[in-house]
Fold:
Amino acid sequence: MNLTARVEDYLEAILEIEMSGEVATVTQMAKNLGVTKATITAALKKLKSDGFLEHERYGDVNLTAEGRGKALAIYRRHEFLTDFFVRILGFSRDRAQKVACVMEHEIDEITERRLAAFTDAISLAERNSEVWLRELLEKLDSPNDLPIPLCLMENGSNGVIARITAQYELRKRLSAAGFIPGAEIFDIKKSDGSQGLYFVFSMNGMEIKFGISEASAIWLYQPK
Structure:
């Protein structure tokens, strides 16, 4: 059963109250989530009918086995994402919590597992004082400006390739022609021709003409 983000928040709130050693009640949930008791009561009624909790009017709120499993999955995801943003990306804990609250409802188990594997690899590299990790963390402390596609560059501008977003054959063709991260592109110009919009620029001393599909797939950092 697919649950809405708000429903998942309710399940997580109940679990967090239980983990704190307190008893989950409508009053406590309303306080923690910043909503009215009427809103909580309506939500609990739906969660009860779906088999996620047990609750009698004016009584305590108790998760069922299924409800606890769902709540634990969301709580674990929230805590993992918060830790990832703080330890790996250097966010403040407050900012990490806010971003995690949004993302915890969107990522699936495969994404979570891959992020966990990445975090474990970082932890191992920390213990082994790997050089690549130090370089990575230095890079994260001095992020680049966000790149933009070649097709949106201003006439006469230059750029450095950040990434190629094309797939399959176009990606292979661009890579074989030298369009790889770090390559420099100069004097970009946009024109309208008989066959539609095209872009002319120079790279490695050669003039190149591309259509919109290629120009949309090449993302550039602009020099400062």
